[in-house]
Amino acid sequence: MKKGTLYCVGMGPGDPELLTFKAWHALCHCPVLALPEDQSGRQTAATILKEAAARQDGLYMDEKTMLSLTFPMTRDAAVLQKAHEDASQKAAAVLDQGLDIALITLGCPTVYASCMYIQKEIRRRGYNTVVIPGITSFSAAAARLGQSLCEKDEPLLIVPAGRDDIPDLLDVQGSKVLMKVPRHMGALKKQLQEKGLLSCASLVERCGLPGERVCTDIRDVDDTGYFSVILVRQEDDL
Known about the structure:
Number of helices: 7
Helix content: 25-40%
Oligomer: single chain
């Protein structure tokens, strides 16, 4: 029996209208939809999927088989490895039946996405995989702010906010995107202030999702949710 193919599908940042045609075609084609969830059972990407299906003909959720895959929000390497192994095994069992799977993810699979750990393991086992890019959260955030991320030969630096070398990275010329902001907001504000960049920083939380928040002045922002991104552009770059 021919084995199925795993499609890693970028759902974009939150607005269902930002789904690409290629992503939509994969979602309609695959009989099995793999839905990532955290340890509490929350499925944010699935919310976008269901909203898209309600707005557009062609994707009929009641005709699909749903496969829930748990990706815990933790830095414990052993816990993450076990979760990735379990998810890969579940996916492989479906692929062995000759069924294609669309594994959805927020944003783009190529940017800090758990689904790529599964894709690498599935490919290592000899299955076919396809990665379908999506609009990133920081691209959508820049559009929401009405500004470009970078222009001409200006570099763009994308950094997880929890890195120890953030002060050094803030010295790098060009625009900065700070991701994975929660738990680091206080330290980030202090570091940006010390570098004279606090007034150049904007925050967008839950871009395109219910509860979206846009802050062009983050000095009074003390806490934020997981789906947040900070964009830093100096005035002479705008």
